[in-house]
Amino acid sequence: MTPADRLPADLVLEGGGVKGVALAGAAAELLGRYRFERVAGSSAGALLAAFLAAGLDAGGVLERTARLEYDRVPDRWAPVPVLAPAVGLLTRSGLHPGRWVTEWVRRELADLGVRTFGDLRRDDPGDDPALAPWQRYRLVVTATDVTRGRLLRLPWDYREYGLDPDAQPVADAVRASLAIPYFFSPRVLRDPRTGRRSTLVDGGVLSNFPVETFDRTDAAAPRWPTFGVGVGDALSDEDVSVLPALRRLPGPLRLLDSLVATTVSARDRDYLARPCVRRRAFSVDTTGTGLTEFDVGEAERARLVAAGTAAARVFLAGWDWEEYLRACRGAAAG
């Protein structure tokens, strides 16, 4: 199938730390049939969403994500290997600064001709008329503003901080969405009008799987589907953890770790259980891989990619656009 023959669709990718490796296999399989007009994501899903919005094809997605050196993602605040993470956690609210992955994303996107959200502008007269000019982009990244207590959809919400959405670096938004609480240090967004600073962390804290991001708000039927791809939906008796080292500690630290991991990994489960959400979304079983196990080897990464590919094939085999419109939108495809 040539690129011109592929069908339009929007795509939303769940966050999940290292589990997000599986998203690449699923996205590559979907790209065999669809082209993505808009892509949204949280955390690891935001990273892949940025590459997809930049126009990578199936081969490019697999090749580009395979180049990420996962063992370098948990970087250090200082060259002292034992003390640096603890000092970072106490003084910077994160075990790791996240500088390495930020610069890696910046370089890779620049190689694709994408630096700021202005490079991802999208103007389509057939879009929902309620979309404002600052909402017309190929990419949406979620983050959580814990200072103001709200979910952010970037670049849509930059204006509320006195910032020009077109001028904001895509890599900085992705890094904010990657800020798993206490694992990576938060990002700070400063309003130049007032000087007020907001602390941003992982978008998954409030919405890890925002499948509704591109849904129309007018009465018109959607022109194409929005697909959602998640990770780790299967029931498991594994202990959830962001900071595995804390599993060995009793008391409040271990409880805090479990609370953060549960918030990031399970926030949207009730929503995703709704029948019409499940019709357009699927999850890849990533049982056995931890959220922050960045020492994952090549064999395990290959297994996750293969699991994503297999899950997407099963989903596509049962997907029926006409049936979805009739059952969930009260309409038929035009």
UniProtKB/TrEMBL annotation:
It comes from Geodermatophilus pulveris. This is NTE family protein. Residues 11-215 form the PNPLA domain. A motif (GXSXG) lies at residues 41-45. InterPro entries: Acyl_Trfase/lysoPLipase (IPR016035), Lipid_Hydrolase (IPR052580), PNPLA_dom (IPR002641). Keywords: Hydrolase, Lipid degradation, Lipid metabolism. GO terms for molecular function: hydrolase activity. A motif (GXGXXG) lies at residues 15-20. It comes from the Bacteria. Gene3D superfamilies: Cytosolic phospholipase A2 catalytic domain (3.40.1090.10). The keyword Cell membrane does not apply.
